[in-house]
Amino acid sequence: MKSKKGVISIQFNWVFILIAGVLILLFFGSLVFKGREASDTSIAGTILTNMQTILTGAEVSVRTINQIKIPNKEIKFNCDKIFVGDIDDDITKNKIIFAPEVIKGRTLLTWALDWNAPYHVTNFLYLTTPDIKYIFIEPLNDEEEELFNMLPDGINKKKEEDISNIKDTGNNFKLVFFDVSDPNVPPNLGSVPDKRVSAISINSDSNEIEFYSKRGNEFKSTGTADYLGNPLVLGAMFSGSRDDYVCNVKKAFNKLKIVSMVYEERTNTLRGLYSGTGCISYYSTAPFSMNYPTESIDEIKSNINSIETSNQYLQSSSCPTIY
User: Can you give the residue ranges of every domain in the chain?
Assistant: First the structure.
């Protein structure tokens, strides 16, 4: 009988030791996990802080492409936020950034352009990586060639007349069509994962851009959006989605509305100061209405042309200019 009790006691001891061992391992495992989680959070926070500094500096370096080394972490963008893992940071309403939805790798390319309509409104910031290849589908007219040439040489860009010549080089592809209502997926990219290939088609007659995502061997439209000037066309190229582009367009036109109100007030003041002179006829405040989307792009373009014309006449007549 004692022998049986001894066996049971030994078995119980082993069970107890096993359970205790598991609990100890779980305890230390949880410490390691929490430590790693805290470390990841700290690293993500540092990356976000550094990214904000990088973006602020790049935004003012107009027409200069910058190649910046970044940690090999997945950084996500939308119109309003930057994400690293589970941590995010806001993008202010004054900052307009056109970027892919995800940036991966160790090299970030930043480039900024000024947007004038007709006076300076703001600077647009464009983000990309060497991995993303922008392919303009020929033939191109003079304006389209100008758009291609606006892209600095540091951007991975190419012109191609025959889409069947486009090969899978392991890149992500953004195809740029002009006045094409039903673009085709290049035959050699049909088997490429859909998320690696997208396209836009620019219609200069309607000032619209149509966005396409790849679904197998076809491009499917994800909708259209307006543009005003080449900097916004480039914004559509660099954007990861139509929704992000539209969000940034709204921010841009809100800024245009505010700046236009300032110039409208300046013009009104000049009108009062130069009443009774030959200058006054050019100080009309009517064209400063820039209420997008209440007013169409065509109406806004007409207002911009009117302001430009008045400014030229004022300059040639030695009158104080509007801008």
Answer: 1-130, 139-221, 252-316
